[in-house]
Design brief:
Elements (H helix, E strand, L loop, with lengths): L9 E2 L2 E2 L1 H4 L2 H22 L5 H20 L3 H9 L2
Antiparallel strand pairs: 1-2
């Protein structure tokens, strides 16, 4: 389930990928970006301990996203109005 803030029609002044190409393509685009980022970080990680930090941060990010997806829509709407 996509939250209300992920359904925005524009991102950074451009049509959002999920609007222009559809949700499946936008999910795959995100997957490709993560793969490319991991490749770049692993190359940089030869000199620094960046890959461990990246993987730890990625795991935490996924846990938070999973938690957000379990929140009922009615509560998310109330949370958005509190901003």
């Amino acid at each position: 389930m996509m939250t209300s803030w992920t359904r925005l029609p524009q991102r950074r002044g451009h049509t959002a990928v999920h609007i222009k190409y559809g949700v499946p393509a936008s999910i795959l685009a995100g997957d490709v970006m993560m793969i490319e980022a991991t490749k770049w970080i692993s190359e940089a990680g030869k000199h620094f301990n960046i890959l461990d930090l990246f993987m730890t941060t990625s795991r935490k990010f996924v846990k938070v996203k999973l938690w957000i997806w379990t929140i009922p829509s009615s509560l998310l709407l109330r949370m958005n109005t509190l901003r």
